[in-house]
Amino acid sequence: HASKTVQLLPSADLILFITSADRPFPDSEKHLLKSIQSYRKNIVVVINKMDILDMSGGNHGEDTKNKVVQFVTENAADLLGVNPIVIPISDRDGL
């Protein structure tokens, strides 16, 4: 899938980069995001499956969710050289 995605990047106006809350930014995603950065496109990072973290820790997982958002934001900023827009989502929120 990655090779087909890379072929479409030059014509994209906006890139939605989706990572998962239960395993944010594995090495394969870091490599892909770093390669996307060279296209200088508008990139929005979406963290999917945030509801998985609801039961982790106290406060309905809010502390863990905040840590995941911070982790993704910092890693994406390091890879892209700018602070990206990061949007955490959950299917429970009913986009």
Overview of the molecule:
With 95 residues, the chain is an alpha/beta fold. The longest helix is centred in the last third of the chain and has 19 residues, at 62-80. It has a 3-stranded parallel β-sheet with strand order 1-2-3, covered by helices on one side. It is built from 3 helices and 3 strands, in the order αβαβαβ. Strand 1, helix 2 (27-37) and strand 2 form a beta-alpha-beta unit. The protein starts with a helix and ends in a 7-residue tail after the last strand. Helix 2 packs across helix 3 (62-80). The chain is elongated. The chain has helices at 2-8, 27-37, 62-80, and strands at 14-20, 42-48, 85-88. The model has no long low-confidence stretch (mean pLDDT 85).
Summary, kept brief:
With 95 residues, this protein is of the alpha/beta class.
Q: Strands of the biggest beta sheet: in what spatial order?
A: 1-2-3
Mean pLDDT: 85
Strand content of the residues, in percent? 15-25%
Number of extended strands: 3
Shape: elongated
Secondary-structure element string: HEHEHE
- From the N-terminal CA to the C-terminal CA, the straight-line distance is 25 Å
Structural class: alpha/beta
**Poorly predicted tracts of residues:** none
Q: What characterizes the major β-sheet?
A: 3 strands, parallel
**Total helical elements:** 3
Helix content: 25-40%
Radius of gyration: 14 Å
